[in-house]
Amino acid sequence: MSRDGKRLAAALAVAGATLLLYAPVRHDDFVDFDDDIYVSENPHLKHGLGAEGLRWAFLPYETNWIPLTWLSLEVDHAIFGLAPGGYHATNAVLHAASAGLLAWALAGATGALGASAFVAGAFAFHPLHVESVAWIAERKDVLSGLFFALSLGAWVGYARRPGMARYAAVLACFAASLLAKAAAVTLPLLLLLLDLWPLGRLGGPGRIEGPRLRRALVEKLPLLALAAAVSAVTYAVQQQRGAMSTLEQVPLWPRAANALVSYVAYLGQTLWPRDLAVFYPHPMAAGPAWRWGGAALFLAAATAAALATWRRRPWLAVGWLWYVGMLVPMIGLVQVGMQARADRYMYLPQIGLSIALAFEVRDRVAGRRALRVGAASAALLALAALAIAARIQLATWRNTETLFQHARAATGENFLAEHALGESRLKRGDADGALPYLAEALRLHPHGAVRGTLADALARQGKLDEAIWNDAEAVRDWPESADLRMRYGQILARRGWVDEALRQYAAALALDARNDRGERAARIQLLMAEAWTARKRADRAIDAYEKALALDPDLVEARAGLALARLDATDPHQAADSLEAALASGLDQPAVHFGLAEALDRLGRQAEAIEHYRVALGEKPDSVEGANNLAWLLATARDPALRSPGEALAWAETAARASGRSDPRVLDTLAVSLAAAGRFEEAVAELDAALALLGDSAPRGQLDALRARREQFAARKPWETRAPGD
């Protein structure tokens, strides 16, 4: 077999083995840690690769400027929708392709097939790289890595046979790598190292010639200019979007101390990859001098030793400087996020350590057959051990629960893991199960985001006053969070403090516009419309609903709400006709059925309203408003044949549970349903609870209606007629 044939065979073998290793990832779920931002709740992916999708991809989004990554996710969304297995499979394929290309490029540069295959295998199988592959949100890592490997291969081709076309290929691959993620900004300097060894473009063995060095530096200028431009854009976007807020919380010296310690920690994890976690909390302080001082001495000694041997063993200098240099943008001197370090940051820098090891061993065993056989056997065993460890680490990425339970076990006190586990339980409707995790997260790190999630959990338990206090503290701590203000407004609205809710929504909208994100603006307008509806301001509600639909024409709740808001401003038949037309056009969504049910009820078509409520609740049984309205109808319908006390009570109890028994209207409905079932004493007790929630400051008409019903049920008189306005 020819040399190129062997290179191709080695590259394909590495890529194939990588795909087998990562095959289980296709069964993994999204995780509640950036996967929602990138895919599962990203409204922009639906644009696809059309003009709008292309335009959006090149705009800043969240805290990154990664246009090529967004385009790749748009492609996946068009193919797989929201099935996570497809995105995971794409990540695995990209990683496998990168490993194969790395083997091809290194073998072409060095002529050492075995050592190059080992480096590529270590890159493919190392557990430190599981995070980059198994985490859908790290598509940017594997996509950037693919074009990084292509850049290396293109540079080897250019170095062997210089030419404008080959240089343009290097530039294009490098640009693509940077557009996926700016992690490869140090590539121009890395290529200069490769010019030294193994390409030998800077002079003869063991020496550097001035003219060649100058020519090599000039060659790198366009690449350096591209790296500088992308670095500037990335820095500006991250600074604008608040990704560097940690810079304000952690002074430079603690960041520098953590960087020194992290260099050594990464080395340790490379040699012995245990207790790997998705998040390592930042110490927020320099720590003991022996730790960072020892790390500094070790790094200085290792660097001096590598440089001292560059004439006789240049691969040691190249490999070590590859590792140290590629980590500089991600080592934490410019802190992005709250992590001390991250496995994903080693995706490309770790290659340098593998090069130093593989080629040093190759040199030591050269010419000694027995040692070569032993080294080859040891290399295969090492790769097998890495693959086994990677498969074990891969299992921790199955879902949010497995990921963060492992992070807790691996790191000890980990506020982000506690917060994520609490949020995960909250999303599943388990507020009781969420609270211990959120309380622990708040103890470890009293940040506004944690307190805001705690407020959500308390609100779901019906503890609205505690929730409001925590949200107020959260907003005070993190006033620039549009999401936090939006959720705070929802709890205020639920408490009945509509004016304050509207102020929070307005602040959230202003923050959203200032950050130029836009993706949540439609949702904020929808909430504002609902608040204006509660204020009986149909004109303002209609305006907000129309703005919401202008921002997101597919927002079904806004379309249904707009039709209902027009009930007070136009003929109610128009709202019902509009919603029926929406259903006929295929917009068969719970929100449309809920809206149509309410419109039909107002028109006196109660039998039809009941059926639409049932359809909607079949799809969305946790709707407090829908369950409450259906229970009221079934308990109080004008036509006795439509009444169903048992079903009314079931839905009323559902609404009471879902609201945490904190909504007077829901308790009123529960009381009416209990009375319809002949359980008058319980009905009176529920009305007493509703009156206690309202207090004396409630509107006089509302209090009088509840008191009248209480007297009626206390006298054991069932419901006979609907109260005015009900």
Give an account of the 3D structure.
The protein has 726 residues and is mainly α. Among the domains are: 3-395, no CATH class; 652-726, no CATH class. Helix content is 71%, strand content 0%. Helix 31 (624-636) packs antiparallel against helix 32 (645-659). The relative contact order is 0.05. The model is unreliable at 721-726 (pLDDT under 50).
Overview in brief:
This protein is mainly alpha-helical.
Share of residues in strands: under 5%
Put simply, the count of helices is 35
In whole angstroms, how far apart are the ends?
Answer: 87 Å
**Helix share bin:** over 70%
Low-confidence stretches: 721-726
Instruction: Choose one word for the global shape.
Output: elongated
- What value does the average pLDDT take? 90
Specify the biggest β-sheet.
none
Counting DSSP E segments of at least 2 residues, the number of strands comes to 0
Which secondary-structure class do the elements indicate? mainly alpha
Over all CA atoms, what is the radius of gyration?
Answer: 31 Å
